[in-house]
From TrEMBL:
Record InterPro entries: WD40_rpt
Entry keyword Ubl conjugation: no
One Gene Ontology term from the biological process aspect of the record: iron-sulfur cluster assembly
Keyword Isomerase annotated: no
Alphabetically ordered keywords of this record: WD repeat
SMART domains: WD40
Protein name in the entry: WD domain, G-beta repeat protein
């Protein structure tokens, strides 16, 4: 830290700080201060400034977090027990009911009415207590936030209150599992649960269907629109990949069908040159396809996961591929130039599996664990060249009546470089997360669809966000507003 000590005759840079709660001296000081025995009575609370930013969580904080987790688990267990009691309280079989005399039946009815009144009273009490607890937590979070330094994340939240995606159109349609746009967003393809594909003209946020295709036997899971040519890919539950092109009659047709996976195709992506296609599947495998005489053929198949592969992403240099699965692993695959093969470079063990991740650049990747209100940030360590988790970003999870249902398939995570925004579907929410200076991230908008069954995509320039959800039963088009 290139700032002189505030004691005039020292004339040297400060390099230490003190975190002792009872300390009355100035907390930032130089080596000469230390030699003069300042802070000598609590030297254990003195540390170098350069170590303060990456300070690890201490034992006291660990104990507090452990106690909090115990309380949460205990509350959850009590709520689960109460839920079961409310669900099955005063239940009686038809056989038992037929065996009751009139007095017993009357007593049963009185008991049920009393139980109903007590149940309503109990729920009301719990609701008030829950509201108080939520308010207390929010108060605490706000106090913590106010005590933080004026960091870039705080600035971006203040400066970007008006930045959001506004709904401009709604179109009723059947379930669409995937969307893909061409480079200038003049065309969009939609892959339907019913197995059909529809090609739309997309102009100023308005959709016009121009062709329907039936190249698959089962549901479409994922799509990719090529940027260098008039072509797109679709992956299906029928275990095949269709490569489509625009023929001489300006109609979309199938050029090649790729087979080889033994499960539904979950993800498709290509490199910038569009001479490498990567697919992942329910069969736990990732396949690499290359062009040979204008036709695609599989050049390599890699494993490593013990469950379906839910997401894949290439880094900027395109020499690393990241993947995640229900097996609670994130795998970093690296291309070996000498052997001309992709190989597992790093295995990251995670506590909670997730369906979505993506590279931001060569140094950063983001991962969304299942049923969590935080998106995890992993950064490349400059020394050992491995990715390590460095921070978490608060994201919305939304609300839904079917509380126990997990997140839903598809809707890949997407980083829009032009707007520096991460599109992150989590639970019932679609989160827009801004990357700001110093590699910080801030959630600028969370759209609660009140259902987990949401699918969507952004245009490559980030101007439009398109979604389909089963609650509205419609395509929703949102436009970027600054």
């Amino acid at each position: 830290m290139n700032q002189n000590c505030n004691i005039p005759d020292h004339e040297t840079d400060v390099e230490f700080l003190c975190t002792n709660e009872q300390c009355k001296d100035f907390r930032v000081f130089c080596f000469k201060c230390l030699q003069n025995e300042k802070h000598n009575t609590h030297i254990k609370d003195v540390q170098k400034i350069k170590d303060f930013g990456r300070q690890q969580i201490n034992k006291s904080d660990e104990d507090l977090i452990f106690d909090l987790e115990k309380m949460i688990d205990h509350i959850y267990q009590l709520f689960f027990t109460l839920k079961e009691e409310l669900k099955f309280g005063c239940q009686i079989s038809e056989e038992e009911l037929n065996g009751l005399n009139l007095n017993q039946l009357n007593d049963l009815l009185c008991s049920k009415i009393k139980f109903r009144k007590e149940k309503q009273s109990l729920i009301s009490m719990i609701s008030k207590s829950a509201e108080y607890m939520i308010e207390t937590i929010y108060t605490g979070l706000n106090e913590f936030s106010q005590q933080q330094f004026d960091r870039p994340v705080k600035k971006v939240k203040q400066e970007m209150k008006t930045l959001k995606y506004e709904l401009i159109d709604t179109i009723q349609d059947e379930q669409i599992n995937s969307f893909a746009f061409n480079q200038d967003a003049s065309l969009m393809v939609g892959g339907y649960e019913s197995s059909k594909i529809q090609v739309f003209e997309f102009k100023k946020g308005q959709l016009k269907m121009i062709q329907q295709l039936n190249f698959h036997k089962k549901s479409i899971y994922c799509q990719y629109f090529m940027k260098k040519s008039d072509g797109f890919l679709s992956g299906s539950c029928d275990k095949t990949i269709s490569i489509c092109y625009l023929n001489d009659n300006q109609k979309w047709d199938i050029k090649q069908r790729l087979e080889g996976h033994q499960g539904g195709i979950n993800c498709l992506l290509m490199n910038r040159n569009e001479d490498l296609l990567i697919s992942s599947s329910d069969d736990m495998l990732i396949k690499f396809w290359i062009k040979d005489n204008d036709l695609w053929e599989c050049s390599q198949t890699i494993g490593g996961h013990s469950s379906f592969v839910s997401s894949i992403s290439l880094n900027t240099t395109e020499n690393q591929l990241v993947s995640c699965s229900k097996d609670s692993q994130i795998l970093i695959h690296q291309y070996d130039q000498e052997q001309k093969m992709w190989m597992v470079f790093q295995i990251i063990k995670i506590k909670q599996w997730g369906r979505r991740l993506c590279f931001i650049n060569d140094q950063i990747l983001v991962f969304q664990p299942e049923k969590r209100e935080q998106m995890h940030i992993y950064q490349l360590d400059s020394i050992d060249k491995y990715f390590v988790k460095t921070k978490e970003v608060i994201v919305g999870v939304g609300s839904e009546r079917k509380k126990n249902r997990g997140c839903f398939w598809f809707f890949p995570q997407q980083y829009v470089q032009q707007k520096q925004i991460v599109l992150n579907k989590n639970g019932c929410c679609v989160n827009l997360i801004k990357k700001v200076e110093n590699d910080e991230f801030a959630t600028i908008q969370s759209i609660d669809f009140q259902t987990k069954v949401i699918f969507g995509r952004m245009t490559d320039d980030g101007e439009y966000l398109i979604t389909w959800d089963d609650r509205s039963g419609s395509i929703q088009i949102r436009k970027y507003v600054d």
